[in-house]
Amino acid sequence: MASNISSTSMAILALALALFVQGTLGGIICEHLDQDTCAFAVSSSGKRCVLEKHVKRSGEEAYKCRTSEIEVDKLKEWIETDQCIKACGLDRKTLGISSDSLLESRFTEKLCSPQCYESCPNVADLYFNLAAGEGVFLPKLCEVQTNPRRGMSEIRSSGFVAPGPLEAAKFTVASPALAPC
């Protein structure tokens, strides 16, 4: 009987230890990342991490890593490498990411380089989605990178935001406003 209690206690202890170790080591939680690893990271839950700046009462700036609401389909538990950050022309202390950077020819040149676009899937996915939000297809922008003026004019003149899946479905059904009376 004593050996049954002992083996049951050992099994419970082993399970508790396994759960503790998995919770401690088994994933990326944005709020646990420091400012040098936060930007361009994806948590274990598949959400992007964002670096936020706060000003303390003393006036000192402090940075915190937070989990955003932006989900990444294919990447989880990802912290972008220093090689990718450099190859893509990015900065670890980026506080916000804007599609405006796609208008800068130096940035798009680095983003579209094979060292970035083909080797850094997290960065490529992020900027692919940012470009799509502006109605621009990033592979096409990279293709016209040989003529930067054409690429920039394509972004500036787009003015059209690509519809999401639900919006696109609305346009495939005849609208009462367009139907004959």
Automatic annotation (TrEMBL):
<feature type="signal peptide">
    <location>
        <begin position="1"/>
        <end position="26"/>
    </location>
</feature>
<keyword id="KW-0732">Signal</keyword>
<protein>
    <recommendedName>
        <fullName>PAR1 protein</fullName>
    </recommendedName>
</protein>
<dbReference type="Pfam" id="PF06521">
    <property type="entry name" value="PAR1"/>
</dbReference>
<dbReference type="InterPro" id="IPR009489">
    <property type="entry name" value="PAR1"/>
</dbReference>
